[in-house]
Amino acid sequence: MNILVLNCGSSSLKYQLLNMDTETLLVKGLCERIGIDGFLKHERGDQVYEANLPMPDHEAAVKIVLDALLDAEHGVLKSMDEIHAVGHRVVHGGEQFSDSILIDEEVEHVIHKCGDLAPLHNPSNLVGIRACKHIMPNVPQVAVFDTAFHSSMPKKAYLYAIPYEYYEKHKIRKYGFHGTSHKYVSMRAAELLNKPYDELKIITCHLGNGASICAVDCGRSVDTSMGMTPLEGLIMGTRSGDIDPAVIPFIMQKGHLTVQETIDLLNKKSGVLGVSGVSSDFRDIGAAAAEGNEQAQAALDSYWYRVARYIGSYTASMNGVDAIVFTAGVGENHIQTREEVCKYLTYLGVDVDTAKNDVRGKEVDFSKDGAKVRTLVIPTNEELVIARDTKRIVSN
């Protein structure tokens, strides 16, 4: 079974085609600058094909992707009939969806309604779904939600301490994100440790430009750092993370900002970018800190501290921890971040082997032999989770 996985952004489209009989990646690629001029990067093994192509909308981008898959030189398919299903990443499923689901008109309607909760993501996800539906009307489409893995959170973890009517009427609560990533790396950790998934307490740290931490207790998400939107939680690349709510009107007043300008400031101009004044890229911040830039060092110190603080709180929420997993761009590749975070955690039984930790983008248990709590690097594979769920839904 060949499954096409799509992840639609406002002006981009990431894709992978996987053979799910062997769970083999056949091709992957990216369409950028949709609605502007259009750029395609298409990769088959070591072969990379790039082209500037007109992409006035997402439907045009989907057609370009399909043409690339069928191309005699760059493609891997002989006909469209070899695509058996399409799996779509959808950011927000609200309370309605606790699992992936076959897309019909009612599912599309709910995704649209959840656009209020994820205005930067769900509308784009829906555009991609409708484009595929129009071009491939007979191919099953499956929605895989970022929020679904966290639907197992208990009410004590997801409620906000505001008047309850706002939850009842408007569903204001914590939902969490990066669910496919947290699910994949926690399951993979159990495999690497050779222990039953449903007997482990695992804390997964998805540390990229967007970042979140999840407490996975016996295979179930019981808490996570992102909230109703991806703005809550950790300090991130450009997002503020946790902040005193009273700071928001104070910023608006002092800076003469509108609501939207303030939201943009917290989402796009804050985080390690805002504190360092240098960049949202840890390589740039690290280089500046090494040269004596105090703001850059403060950004790193604050980031490491916040990650460690969340790990500590989630250890308490599960009454213990067996393994801590680092994943995503920073988690997989920034050696110093893992080292500095783990320095806070020796009281738990974390004991790091610095030689084993000297790795980027590869699976490794970098704990010392005999460490009570295992520390692992596991590159995430959200597309594989989407493809697995799509195969399961379509097969059933």
Automatic annotation (TrEMBL):
Site (Transition state stabilizer) residue list: 178, 239
Cofactor(s) needed by this chain: Mg(2+); Mn(2+)
Key word Methyltransferase present: no
Family annotation (InterPro entries): Ac/propionate_kinase, Aliphatic_acid_kin_short-chain, Aliphatic_acid_kinase_CS, ATPase_NBD
Compartments (UniProt record): Cytoplasm
GO MF, any single term: magnesium ion binding
Presence of the UniProt keyword Disulfide bond in the record: no
Entries under Gene3D superfamilies matching the protein: 3.30.420.40
Active site residues according to the UniProt entry: 146 (proton donor/acceptor)
A GO term from the CC aspect: cytoplasm
Binding sites annotated in the UniProt record for Mg(2+): 7, 382
CDD domains: ASKHA_NBD_AcK_PK
Residues annotated for substrate binding in this entry: 89
Stored Pfam families: Acetate_kinase (PF00871)
Broad class of the protein's primary localization: cytoplasm
Cofactor binding annotation: Mg(2+). Can also accept Mn(2+).
Pathway annotation: Metabolic intermediate biosynthesis; acetyl-CoA biosynthesis; acetyl-CoA from acetate: step 1/2
Listed EC numbers: 2.7.2.1
Binding site for ATP: 14, 206-210, 281-283, 329-333
Top-rank taxon, per record: Archaea
PANTHER family per the UniProt record, alphabetical: ACETATE KINASE, ACETATE KINASE-RELATED
Subunit comment: Homodimer.
Family per similarity comment: Belongs to the acetokinase family.
Protein name as it appears in the record: Acetate kinase
Taxonomic lineage: Archaea, Methanobacteriati, Methanobacteriota, Stenosarchaea group, Methanomicrobia
